[in-house]
Amino acid sequence: MADKRSPPPLDEEALRELALRYVGRFATSRAKLLAYLGRKIRERGWTGEAPADPQALVDRLSELRYVDDASYAVMKSGALSRRGYGPRRVAEALRADGIAETDREEADAQTKKESWSAADRFARRKRIGPYAHERPDPGQREKWIAAFLRAGHDYATARLWVDAAPGEVPEAET
C-alpha cells in the first residue's frame, strides 16, 4: 500500500493560494478566514523566509474586497431568516463568525424587518400553531414555545404563534 504523502510546508505563495482558493469557494468573514489560515499553518508548518503573517494576508484580501464582513453579515442573516430563525439566533451566528457590531448594522436592521415572516416560516416548517392539525396539549405547547425560543424568537412572538388556532394565522405586530 502506498504511503500518503503529506502536503509540503507552506510559504508566502502557498498561503496566498490557499486563501484565494478558500474565498473563491466559500462566503466567509475575516475571522473565519484567519482561523482557517492559522489552522493550515499549524497542520502543514511554515518554511517562508519571514514569519507567517496570516493577519496581513486577511487585511489585504479585505482591502481588495474579496472578504467583506458587512456583506457577509447581510447574506448570512438573510439566509438564516429565510430558514425561520429569529433575531437573537441570527445575532449569535454572526457573533460566532467574528462579525463586529459595526459590520452588523445593516444585517440587524434586515433581520428585525423580516422577523415576523421568519416566525411564520418557522411555524410552517415545524407545523406549529396555525399550521398544526390540532391544538397542542400543555406539554406539547411548552415544547413548541421552547423550539421558538431556541430558534431565536422572543417569548411574546412564540406565544402568539403557538396559541394560534389551527388554520388561523396571527396578525403581524406593527
Please work out how many helical segments DSSP would assign.
9
Measured by DSSP, the beta-strand proportion falls in: under 5%
Mean pLDDT: 94
User: How would you classify the helix and strand content by structural class?
Assistant: mainly alpha
From the spread of the alpha carbons, the general shape counts as elongated
- Rg over CA atoms, rounded to whole Å, is 22 Å
Percent in helix: 55-70%
Number of strands: 0
Q: Secondary-structure element sequence?
A: HHHHHHHHH
Describe this structure in words.
The chain is an all-alpha fold and 174 residues long. It contains nine helices and no strands. Helix 2 runs antiparallel to helix 3 (54-63). The longest helix is centred in the first third of the chain and has 15 residues, at 30-44. The radius of gyration is 22 Å and the shape is elongated. It starts with 11 loop residues before the first helix and ends in a 12-residue tail after the last helix. The mean pLDDT is 94.
